[in-house]
Design a protein that fits this description.
disordered C terminus; Glycerol uptake facilitator protein; single chain; mainly alpha
Amino acid sequence: MTLLARKAVAELVGTAFLVAAVIGSGVMATRLSPDDVGLQLLQNSIATGAVLVALILALQPVSAAFNPVVTLIERVLGLLTTRAALVLVAAQLVGGVLGAVVANLMFELDAVSFATTERGGTGQWLGEVVATLGLVLVIFGSVRAGRVDSVAFAVGGYIAAGYWFTSSTSVANPAVTVARLFSDTFAGISPASVPMFVLMQLLGGVLALGLLLVLHPSDPRPTDAPAEEVSHG
């Protein structure tokens, strides 16, 4: 199997598990704490942050972005070829949908049920810009500071916190956003809400890239290290 194929499998599997954890823990939370939305969010955020740490630690040696924004920025920074970036983004999107279907089936729901939860408005859109900007800075800032081993914990902690300090509960991921429209559960996002969420996530990524180049203008990678062999969360 080629390196790109291995990366694609890692991105598909990792994104599938991430989405399954987001949706599955949301369903479990509503069943265990049906009358306490705050507790539901706490349970959902802890599960999501924890699974991110585990998945990145396990898959980082191959590829552990699980997020099209991160992959596109890797392309801009020269860490991936255009072909590789497109393949990995496709794998993330497919993995996300697969994770949503599996989560639905685990809890004996319809395999696919389109979400009806509307998420929008300037506050939540701004929340997604902030959430994605912060996530990208955490990831690439850690890498450019030479702290690759800390990425898993930094990302897991940031996303768990982002559930609480952003108005949008910090989705910060186009693949996860698209996947969540296929589950009419606690974590669902209605199809009509998806385009603006994705647009705001891309905007947050662009802003983060600009700030990253100001704060960390140099790349600590050895100059003779092939860019396509560098992978991170």
